Amino acid sequence: MHNELKESYQKIITAVGEDANREGLLDTPKRAAKAMEYLTQGYRQTLDEITNKAVFTSDADDMVLVQDIELYSMCEHHLLPFIGRCHIAYIPNGKVLGLSKFARIVDMFSRRFQIQEQLTHQIAKAVEEVTGAKGVGVIVEAKHMCMMMRGVEKQNSSMRTSVMLGNFRSDPKTRNEFLQLIKG
Ligand SMILES: [Zn+2]
């Protein structure tokens, strides 16, 4: 993959009218390929591998909230970044997941080409699958470079998506508790 990416970046540099052989750009295809490999490593990861048995038995049944997880992804329409924050809440059903694993789940799905709606859904389904939770709520707030740097050039707009599963969907009280907690 690395060489293919490298050659592709070389072509992009030439296609925009640059001299791919000038000093400042000489190693750019190599560096860009490496960066792109990193930013898409989610394609080569699985949920099993990243959560790596960090699921613990617990009789806790109160809402667990992990707030303000940084999120960096790329939109599948323009391959430009969208960046923001993710809030995840769930109600345990006998099992809890190690704290750092939520960030890993967010990273795994973010490091694929995405639309935000789909990303939010994938994170929620993954948390549900790994924990067997009674309910999961996920909110993503992000700014999209394809809106800010090109097109309509709206620098201050952000997009908010949410997915509610299980009792977050069926019980307004649970959902409201989540929404109140992330405000507070
Ligand atoms: Zn886009």
UniProtKB/TrEMBL annotation:
Its EC number is 3.5.4.16. Keywords: GTP-binding, Hydrolase, Metal-binding, Nucleotide-binding, One-carbon metabolism, Zinc. Zn(2+) binds at residues 75, 78, 146. It catalyses: GTP + H2O = 7,8-dihydroneopterin 3'-triphosphate + formate + H(+). The keyword GTP-binding applies. GO terms for biological process: one-carbon metabolic process; tetrahydrobiopterin biosynthetic process; tetrahydrofolate biosynthetic process. It is an enzyme of class 3 (hydrolase). Transmembrane segments: none annotated. Pathway: Cofactor biosynthesis; 7,8-dihydroneopterin triphosphate biosynthesis; 7,8-dihydroneopterin triphosphate from GTP: step 1/1. Pfam families: GTP_cyclohydroI. The keyword Aminoacyl-tRNA synthetase does not apply. It comes from the Bacteria. Residues 6-182 form the GTP cyclohydrolase I domain. GO terms for cellular component: cytoplasm. GO terms for molecular function: GTP binding; GTP cyclohydrolase I activity; zinc ion binding. PANTHER family: GTP CYCLOHYDROLASE 1 (PTHR11109:SF7), GTP CYCLOHYDROLASE I (PTHR11109). Belongs to the GTP cyclohydrolase I family. This is GTP cyclohydrolase 1.
